Amino acid sequence: MKRCLGVVLLLAFLLGPCFATYHLFGDALSFDWFAADALYPSSIANPFSSTSVLNLLYLTDGQPRSIKYTGTDTGSRKYEEVPFLKDSAYIDEHLYLQLKTGLNIGLFRFSYRDAVEAEMGFQGALNSVFQGFGGADNLGFDGIFFLGMNVRLFHLVTFRVGLQHYSGHYGDETLENISNQCGDPVEYTRDNNFLFGVSVQPASFIRLYLDANLPLEKSWMHPAIHIPS
Amino acid sequence: MIFAEVSMAWAASFQWAPLDPLFREPLADPFACSTSFRYLGVLDEASVPDSVLVANSDTKQYETIQYDSTSQRGYWQMKSAVNIGLLRVTLGPVQAEGYIQGGLNTVFQKQGSVDALGFDGMYGAGMTMRFFDVVAIQAGFHHFSGHWGDEILFDLQQANPGMDLYSSSSIYHLEEYTRGNSWLAGVSLEPVAWGRLYFFAELPMKKAWIRPGIHVPADTIKPGSEDISQFGNITGQEGLSGLTPYDSSYKAWRLQAGLELRFPVWDMGSFFLAGDVQAHQDGQTLHQVGGYDPNNPWEFECTVGGGFEFNQSILGRKMRLECYYHDGRFPLLNYFFQRSKYVVMGIAISG
Question: What is the pTM of this model?
Answer without folding.
Answer: 0.88
